Amino acid sequence: MKIIEKLNSWIERAETIVLVTVLGLMVVFAFLQVVLRNIFHEGILWGDILLRHLVLWVGFIGASLATREKKHINIDLFSRIMSDRGKNIVHLLTNLFSVFICYLLADAGWTFVQDEKMMGAEIFAEIPAWYFQIIIPVGFFLMAFRFLVLSLENIIYVFRPEKGGDK
Amino acid sequence: MTSFLFGILLLLFALFGTSLFVIIAAVALSAFYFAEIDSSAVIIELYRLASQPILLAIPLFTFAGYLLAESNTPQRLVALSRAFFGWLPGGLGIVTLVSCAIFTAFTGASGVTIIALGGLLYPVLKKENYPEKFNLGILTASGNLGLLFPPSLPIILYGLISETSIDKLFIAGIIPGLLMVALMSLYSVNRMYKVNPNVESFSAKKAWQATKNAVWEIPLPFIILVGIYGGFFTVTEAAAVTAFYVLIVEVFIYKEVSLTKGLPKVMKDSMILVGGILVILSAAMGLANYMIYDEIPMQILEWMKNFITSKVAFLLVLNLFLLVVGALMDIFSAILVIVPLITPIAMEFGVDPVHLGVIFLANLGIGYSTPPVGMNLFIASFRFEKPVLKLYVATIPFLIILLIALALITYIPELSLWLVDFVGV
Asked: pLDDT by residue (tens digit) across B118-148?
């Protein structure tokens, strides 16, 4: 578990670095595009399409981080009235289900990227689209991993409540 | 039978806290599976997002909103509206409503308003002897007041998923939004002018001071509105300008968020929300594609026609339905899942898509403060450390006012559409 936790926070650090860099670039570059268009009447042609692909990057990394911090949007009506033990048992099930669905999505994403790669899809100027699309399967895979870690924490809680899990 | 059991199981999973994107994706994946379509169809729908120019506006506006919330903008906003409205008898109610509405427009109704502004306004109201019940009620009910004002994120999402012009939606929400603020202001002044008769007189000096302090932030709404409707830029460009402007102002001029520590944290927190929305958006787009393919809205319509025949009856059922949905779900998922289902039906009953958007947002926003499970009630209970039951009682009078406003907004389409025609977007 310690090794997994280490790996998990190592991934988080990498994600944060990519996220901050990409979003920083996006804010500056998007503004620059507006300036170019309004003053020189011409933005960088591939600028907008690049920016939209970067949204996928920050979005999927954000979603992966949301999984780690249990900040995904949910309804969670019943957990309010459950004991900590019951909560962990139920959340073990829901987390495992989430692992399964995210895995299916990662798999579907992988098929999609392979198809695009084979068709030689480009986003602009001979840059293959899959360079950017790859974040879709990677993002879902990271989410599957995070949900798996959360399920492990739920199991640990049932046996050793002092060691984490949902409270 | 199998699909029925599967549905029940998913519903249980959802109610026990499974992330909504997982639930929606599960429905979409199984629907495609049974229709013998390859699961990568879900991803194709997702990737279609990358061709929508408005996609870029979502992270940029969200980032700007979080950055404003993280700096001292809330304090300056409250000081400013206090200087201008605080001298009226019972004026602190108006101060609360106006500050919350402006703040929510920028932060996108994710509960941030109650957390950030509630903490500032609650002690102020208490100190001026406003009764506790009134304070709790007004702060809980104001949590989503600015939802209808640009550049609120729910409006953008509605436009994106329903393929309605966001330029029009931004304009359409203004009068209905003002109506809600005005009705609630009337109510609070009417109730409070005896409790709090004219405590502070208007001070030009104070007003000037507050204006000067917020001088960099006051232009923001105008940059957005004038920029878009003056024809200078698109909504997405407005987002780019807003994000850059707020970054410069908060980090380099006010220096309230540090470049190395505060800024990365704001970026991370805001993108966690964006990521959460993006995955729901992608799953919902896959699902919507399937629903349209399977003509599910048309089937619902056929069934509905058995007992709903007029536009008014349809709108009434819609109002009630959305109140329940808004109380159960957050506004982002509600919009993304319900809108593709309802829009084709509403068209059949002759509801204008722009008007429908305003109804949706106003309605879902009120649902947030509706007992027993509206999310604002829990956020407020947590923030003010008061039992939820107490908040139910405190919120009811304000809820009634909001429902009156909702009825006006729903049954008088001109409230939403007149300004759209007038501006001519």
From this structure: 888 999 888 888 899 999 999 999 888 889 9
Contact at CB, A30 and B43, closer than 8 angstroms: no
Contact yes or no for A111 and B39 at CB 8 A: yes
Choose the closest CB to B60 out of A27, A66, A76: A27
Write out pLDDT tens, residues B245-256: 999 999 999 999
Instruction: Give the integer Cα–Cα distance in Å for B85 and B182.
Output: 13
Rounded mean pLDDT of A15-21?
A: 96
3-state SS class at B38: coil
- Using an 8 Å CB-CB cutoff, list chain A residues near B25: 101, 104-105
Residue B338, SS3? helix
- Count CA atoms within 13 Å of residue B273 on its CB side: 25
Q: Quick check: B311 and B350 in contact, CB under 8 A?
A: yes
Tell me the two tokens of residue B383.
């923030």
Please give the span between the terminal C-alpha atoms of chain A, in angstroms, as a whole number. 19
pTM: 0.92
Report ipTM for this prediction.
Answer: 0.94
And the tokens for B400?
């009634």
Q: Is the backbone of residue A43 left (phi > 0), alpha (psi -120 to 50) or beta?
A: beta
Q: Is the pLDDT assigned to residue B199 strictly greater than 70?
A: no
Contact B276 A62 (CB under 8 A): yes
Between CA B179 and CA B321 the distance in angstroms is 22
B389 beta partners: none
Task: Please check the confidence at residue B110 and state whether its pLDDT lies above 70.
Answer: no
Instruction: Reply yes or no on whether the pLDDT at A102 is more than 90.
Output: yes
Q: Are B416 and B355 in contact (CB under 8 A)?
A: yes
Write the Ramachandran bin of A114: left for phi over 0, alpha for psi from -120 to 50, otherwise beta: alpha
Instruction: Report how many helices (DSSP H) and strands (DSSP E) chain A contains, helices first.
Output: 5, 2
Q: Residue B195 has what DSSP assignment?
A: T
